[in-house]
Amino acid sequence: MSKGPRRPLLAGALLLATTGLAFAQQPVVTRPASSSTAGGNVSGTIASTGVFQMLFAAVSGGASGANVTGGGGPRHGCTILNNGTHVMEVTEGMLTPASLITLAVILQPGQPYYCSVGGSVLVGQVNITGTSGDAFYATQY
In the prediction, which pLDDT does 138 show? Predict the structure, then answer.
C-alpha cells in the first residue's frame, strides 16, 4: 500500500486543526464607557420644537483629543441617539443661531451621532433640536 495518499490527508487535517486558533475572538470593548466628564448622561426629551438646547458644554484646552481637559474633565467621546419618531438635528461647536441652522447634522429616528472623527474627539459645545417631546439618549465619556 502506498503512503502517498495519506500525506495530503494528514497535512489537511493539521491545517484545519491549527487554523481554528487564528480565528479566536478578541475581547469586546463596549461604549459608552463610564463617564469621565461632568454631565455624563443627559438623556431626555426635546424641550421646544426647532429650538436648540445644549447637551454638553465645550471642553477647553486647545486641540481636540482624548487628553483635552477643562469644562468638567476630559471628553473621550459622546454618543447621541435619536429615540424619537421625528428628525433631530445636532451641532458641535456652533454658538450662534444662524450657524446652528446651516451646519446641523440630521439624525433620522434610531440614528446615532458620535463626538469623534478619525480618532480625534470633538470638543465643542454640543446642541440638539427636534420635535417637542421626542426622546433622545445622550452621554459623554
Answer: 96
109, HSE (Cβ side, Cα atoms, 13 Å): 6
What's residue 94's pLDDT? 64
- In the numeric block, which cell numbers belong to residue 89? 438635528
If phi > 0 it is left, if psi is from -120 to 50 it is alpha, else beta; for residue 123 that is: alpha
Question: Which neighbouring-strand residues pair with 138?
Answer: 80
Where do runs of H (alpha helix) occur along 33-134?
97-102
Q: Which domains does the chain have, with CATH numbers?
A: 44-140 (2.60.120)
Q: In what order do the strands lie in the sheet with 112-114?
A: 44-45, 135-140, 78-82, 112-114
pLDDT, tens digit, 9 for 90 and up, residues 76-92: 889 999 999 999 999 88
d(CA 138, CA 128): 10
Computed from CA positions of residues 105, 106, 112, 118, in that sequence, does the dihedral angle turn out positive or negative?
negative
Please give the single-letter amino acid code of residue 72: G
